[in-house]
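re: that complex we talked abt at group meeting.

here r the seqs, copy pasted straight from the sheet so there may be weird spacing, ignore it
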Amino acid sequence: MRQMLKVTVNGYPWEGLVKSDQSLLDFLRDELGLTGAKKGCDGGECGACVVLLDGRAVNSCLIPVLDVNNCEVRTIEGLQDEQTNQLQDAFVSVGAVQCGFCTPGMIVAARALLAEVHNPGEEEIREAMVGHLCRCTGYTRIAAAIKLAASRINPETAGPER
Amino acid sequence: MTTITNYVQAASIEMALQALADNKMSGRFLAGGTSLMPILNLLRYQPGVTHTLIDIKHIEGLRTIELQADELVIGAAVTLSELTKHQLVLEHAPVLVRVAKVIGSREIRNRATLGGNLCSGDPRADLLLPTMALLARLQFVHMDDPNVMGMSEFLAQGNRARQHAILTHIYIPIAREVRWGYSRLAEKSMGRCNIAAMALVAGESGSLKEIGLVVGGEALWPQYFTGLHIGSGAKGSILTLAEKVVSEIAAGKVGWSDYRTATAVTVVYEALEELMNNEANA
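got the structure back, here u go
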């Protein structure tokens, strides 16, 4: 069965019929071609599919697409602000990326964290990344990258850069 | 070959109940979807299994948190993130915040709801313990009439309590001055608890004579023990009490292993120990 959906994705309004059994993740990837959000576990455990829904980080695999009617969705492709750029730079410079499959979800989640907490401590960062699995880097560099990005975005409240 | 054949966004409780009545065989209430959707995603390619999702989280009044007389009234569709940040909850039911914070990940808590957790039909649902310990009452609305029940009755009724009904509000008494201790063990970092325990004492500090203790977890609907005595408060007497409670729980349970006893004793001990420390600092 197909039902009408009206949604704003990365600032662009979209309106049309969607399959009622489709998840937000499948809609983004298969209908809109936005493949930045990855399909990992399809059960909300790996974090590879994380996007911002009305500004909050969510697992897009756990959301029926019709549930986002009249909402605003932002994927990694739509995050092009200073904070996101700093995060991306920090991930690269610290070496927090290897295969890169988990990285888009991590950047989106880190972006949501930094919007809430300007200079998060190690524990806050690790707590925010609980829902993200990485099989390459071992997490230490990911936490370091987020801390580095935070210190560059908000130098006045950060400790010394390491 | 689809599982979700229809999606209904309910604007009112009446509309949701009507949609459920219209879809007797396939209707499923959807709140945060963090428990339901992984199951539906798994079932997606099984022919013949259909679901009509009736989304109840947009119903007005189900996402509010307010004080009414001497009770904290929390809408069932309040997300765990909202719960952990709300000033009234932080002030009057910090134990709920403590437990909600260990559920899933940030992304999960941004979607998962208090009502969804309580009504998931899973004894491992973490919020069963604090709501029971706080003597919360649950308001269900049926087609015919509203029904308010205590947590014990809710757990005793099982699926019948939720059948053809919507959990709308959770009432938590705030008059009691409560100190508590909490511990849980989960196999996975984001997993539901295998075993969890919450110890609490009400009344003025220094009145650590009668302790309430709730223990629950996998295949173990929460059990509330009241009137417990901790003896001298030394580590040995805490351990003795933990062993006594766990042996009572284990009695007659099929498949309850020595490993389960050991982990349960540890978790109950930790909860009691934290209570003792909180009491000492009160």
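couple things i noticed - Chain B touches chain A through 27 residues (CB under 8 Å). Residues 81 and 106 of chain B are 8 Å apart (CA to CA).
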